[in-house]
């Protein structure tokens, strides 16, 4: 499958680009982050941590190309140094704990938003100008312009503080022991309702509009008219003839919104005190924990590229032309 | 010109959207006359609920929420439009260059555009802002402007490439028009709807992103903007102690300007692609068709 191989090659290059940017940013900025971090950490860090930090950032150690090689080695061995805030934990340990929660939160919301948005978009296009279309479509336009932080704060206030229906923070009830017990899984699901739904909410509108517009384009095509003329059921024409073709641009839109779902998940986690990457990043920013902040960018880039790869595979499945090419 | 204005005013979405945006611009311009206090001045005790004196209550620091909201409008609109302008200029320049020149120039630009598209935006912005340290709204606008051009570049490039194959472009090329004239006179007018869409989309994106960055504590805490208002509310646990006004005011202001701007954007989309028009137009067409049918029936009825 040359298509998929080409994409994987591109993602490797993109990851290297992100790593280079990550290397350059602290070196282009004025001031010395090391001193700043040590001032913030208030002498809780031992001198060897300072040496490790210096090594990670490579400040004043050797010429630039040597610094870069050392940096590359640390990226590919995933030895990202110590976290200032969570010392003696390493950056990869801290991120390793946080990543699954973010993948769970962002993944569930992205899939929820995509399915709900696309199905409602199909229905809105099928009865264009009907009652459902005239309420749902303008509403979708309005909703997708509202930032995730606003939705999350509103949900927190209404359902968490005022009505007290759902927990206002944490990924599970802290009284429970983590494990595969039904109780624990129930608690995780219960705590996830608000973050997942409020994160998905922002993106539903975008999928609805994309799907509706593609569907309207498809409905005028000959093969759809032919399907109707043959006397196929509405259902069959709607889903197998029109929607399947209209889905391709929606899948592209899905790939493009992965980044914004991840960004939204950063904010949502902060609002709901959810223990994922976003929450960790927030803590890292407040503590000026630069190694952790930089590790985040690499991990999130990796997550984003993996998600993009999954979308490419979905594309191959949906579009038979790519299988032959 | 009056013809195109008429097209805009016939679209309800465009009218509502324009009204919202103009109202915000008016608020931003008139900020000193609408408010009585300076935005950072203490006017009451912490967390006073809305009253006649403090229309929208006070913050943890006893500052007037209404005053901060109005002055924050200035900051957010300024940041939004500045970054939107930067994004659009970079995106359109790269997009037209790549799409029009083609060849290796196109390959290079397209390569960088694709990479910029898959590196996650918000985390990148967060890292840059974290190293800048307490970024002022102006710096935030620059950072967003310089990192968010990829989508615009890609869309403009695609449209330029499809225009390039049209006959009128080939005809003017054969007629020997210079490159600047090809771009400024032949291509740009046909790209206007995409450029406008890109600009307004970038303004929305910037306003949301600025608020997010500041909410996460990367902004300058002494700046007055919607994002720092949310940040201060978050750090003082305003929601948990029931001081909803401190959060509701900036949150609803951000939501409404976002809606206003995206209404304009969808109007642009509808005007340039008539197939997408909703309800009003479809209903009107159906009504007109029924009237014609009835007239036809009436005309044939007496003879039958």
Automatic annotation (TrEMBL), chain A:
GO terms for biological process: transmembrane transport. Keywords: Membrane, Transmembrane, Transmembrane helix, Transport. The chain crosses the membrane at residues 9-29, 98-126, 138-163, 183-209, 246-267, 297-318. It is found in: Cell membrane. GO terms for cellular component: plasma membrane. Its main location: membrane. CDD domains: TM_PBP2. Pfam families: BPD_transp_1 (PF00528). It is a multi-pass membrane protein. Residues 99-315 form the ABC transmembrane type-1 domain. Belongs to the binding-protein-dependent transport system permease family. This is Peptide ABC transporter permease. It comes from Devosia insulae DS-56. The lineage of its organism: Bacteria, Pseudomonadati, Pseudomonadota, Alphaproteobacteria, Hyphomicrobiales.
TrEMBL record, chain B:
PROSITE patterns: ABC_TM1. Residues 73-265 form the ABC transmembrane type-1 domain. It is a multi-pass membrane protein. It holds the Pfam family OppC_N. Keywords: Cell membrane, Membrane, Peptide transport, Protein transport, Transmembrane, Transmembrane helix, Transport. GO terms for biological process: protein transport. It comes from the Bacteria. CDD domains: TM_PBP2 (cd06261). The chain crosses the membrane at residues 14-34, 77-101, 108-132, 138-156, 187-208, 247-268. InterPro entries: BP-dependent_transpt_permease, MetI-like, MetI-like_sf, OppC_N. GO terms for molecular function: dipeptide transmembrane transporter activity. The keyword Cell membrane applies. One of its GO terms (cellular component) is plasma membrane. It is found in: Cell membrane. PANTHER family: D,D-DIPEPTIDE TRANSPORT SYSTEM PERMEASE PROTEIN DDPC-RELATED, OLIGOPEPTIDE TRANSPORT SYSTEM PERMEASE PROTEIN APPC. Belongs to the binding-protein-dependent transport system permease family. This is Peptide ABC transporter permease.
